[in-house]
Design a protein that fits this description.
Layout: H1 3-11, E1 36-39, E2 42-48, E3 56-65, E4 71-77, E5 84-86, E6 94-99, E7 104-108, E8 111-116, E9 120-127, E10 136-146, E11 150-160, H2 166-177, E12 181-182, E13 188-194, E14 200-206, E15 217-221, E16 227-228, E17 235-237, E18 240-249, E19 261-267, E20 272-279
Parallel strand pairs: 12-20
Antiparallel strand pairs: 1-2, 2-3, 3-9, 4-8, 5-10, 6-9, 7-8, 10-11, 13-14, 14-18, 15-19, 16-18, 17-18, 19-20
């Protein structure tokens, strides 16, 4: 997410009452959970659009990081705490997808990490099975918030779905606009396969043109227990880019097999692309 977009996104949010800094989120009944709260290092808020006639609902989790604070992407890298979103207790809503904006890499004494140092929004998509019945988003969230040290944080947020107002609709629209563009046969993520030695996954991508991009990087998130490092500069063949993404951790049960599927995002600077549930082929 660009710095300007982040400023516009959170300028629309109203002020948020503070909890005691550093205190854990107190246990609450579902009815007591607020749609917004603040903790040390970040302010959190749920917003939603009005449900569409086909039953789809778009919403967003806004994470307004305080100056100097960071949080992590789905695969946090060598050091960090991945975010966990539990939406299973939502009422009359089935969670379909949670989309994160493009992360960036940052390092400290503990190693290189993937995440965010500016405000961000997680784009949430739901299906509403019964359009005539009330619906509520119920989110139990855990994430890492870091400044000099990392703080494991948790929150319980709840939002009753109504008509929504214009400001909330703009916030949700910004969240979805910040997502990487879906890959196509002409640009984006093309394929993935395990290397011959099993030490990396090779990601093949197509740039939209043959010009030199100021950035060329990929981030990979796998199933539970799989972790990936940062690739070196890609091999180039015209528009085709090949990244060797190190496998830094995997379940013991995986053996020599690749993960069944991974989620990949491609950062080319001005252009970003994503691919969800991309199948990983065995070594060639």
């Amino acid at each position: 997410m660009g710095r300007g977009l982040a400023k516009r996104l959170f300028a629309l949010a109203t002020s948020i009452p503070l909890l005691l800094a550093g205190a854990p989120v107190p246990p609450s009944s579902a009815a007591d959970a607020p749609p917004r709260l603040s903790m040390e290092g970040a302010e959190l808020r749920l917003v939603a659009e009005e449900p569409a006639p086909d039953g789809r609902l778009r919403a967003a989790l806004l994470i307004d990081l305080a100056s100097g604070w960071k949080t992590y992407w789905r695969d946090p890298g060598e050091a960090g705490i991945p975010p966990r979103l539990d939406l299973s207790k939502s009422v009359n809503l089935v969670s379909l997808a949670a989309g994160f904006p493009m992360p960036h890499r940052f390092g400290d004494a503990d190693g290189a990490s993937n995440g965010y140092s500016q405000p961000l929004a997680v784009a949430l998509t739901f299906e509403r099975p019964d359009p005539s019945a009330p619906a509520t988003i119920d989110l139990v969230l855990s994430l890492g918030l870091c400044r000099e040290i990392c703080i494991p944080a948790s929150a319980h947020l709840r939002l009753d779905i109504g008509a929504g107002d214009a400001a909330d609709r703009r916030l949700v629209a910004y969240a979805f606009a910040a997502l990487p563009e879906a890959s196509t046969p002409n640009a984006g993520i093309a394929s993935a396969h395990l290397s011959a030695d099993g030490a990396s996954i090779e990601i093949e991508a197509l740039a939209p043109d043959e010009r030199e991009h100021r950035r060329a990087d990929v981030f990979v998130a796998g199933p539970e227990g799989w972790f990936f490092g940062a690739p070196k500069a890609p091999r180039r063949d015209g528009r085709r880019l090949t990244f060797a993404v190190p496998v830094t951790g995997k379940p013991r049960s995986a053996g020599d097999a690749p993960p069944a599927a991974v989620d990949v995002v491609l950062d080319l600077g001005a252009e970003t692309y994503g691919a969800s549930k991309l199948g990983v082929a065995p070594p060639r």
